[in-house]
Write a structure and sequence with these properties.
Helix content: 10-25%
Order of helices and strands: HEEEEEEEE
Largest sheet: 4 strands, mixed
Distance between the termini: 29 Å
Strand order of the largest sheet: 1-3-6-5
Shape: globular
Radius of gyration: 15 Å
Strand content: 35-45%
């Protein structure tokens, strides 16, 4: 049901977005620190990460990807229940065969100095 709701949301976004025509995969990086996905060359995919509040917290790409072109990012709609995280969506297109690591860093302005920010790693295999 959760994935159906997300896919419905994404389908609506794609009707109005010229940058993305079709999504081959939705990667939800909420639980694992490291995850992986296999994508065909030329296909688009979206990565979903939770933003816990709107007071400066945000996910950022740590470095540009070579084999996966980053096309856009946006905040999704807030959860149906109060205090639910909002999904941050990152859209990519697989442009070159091979393996690529995409690292995301969670920026929280309230984190004490010297504490490492939360990170997620997505390993993309492009066939």
């Amino acid at each position: 049901m959760k994935h159906l709701l997300l896919l419905s949301l994404l389908a609506g976004l794609f009707l109005t977005t010229q940058a993305q025509k079709k999504v081959a995969a939705v990667v939800n990086l909420t639980i694992n620190k490291v995850d992986s996905v296999v994508i065909e060359k030329g296909k688009s995919f979206v990565v979903q990460l939770p933003v816990h509040n709107r007071t400066g917290d945000d996910w950022k790409l740590s470095q540009p990807s070579v084999k996966c072109n980053f096309t856009q990012s946006m905040l999704g709609q807030a959860g149906m229940l109060p205090n639910q995280p909002e999904p941050k969506l990152f859209f990519f297109k697989a442009v070159e065969k091979g393996t690529e690591s995409i690292r995301f860093i969670y920026k929280n302005p309230r984190t004490a100095e010297g504490i490492e920010p939360e990170e997620k790693l997505l390993i993309v295999t492009i066939q």
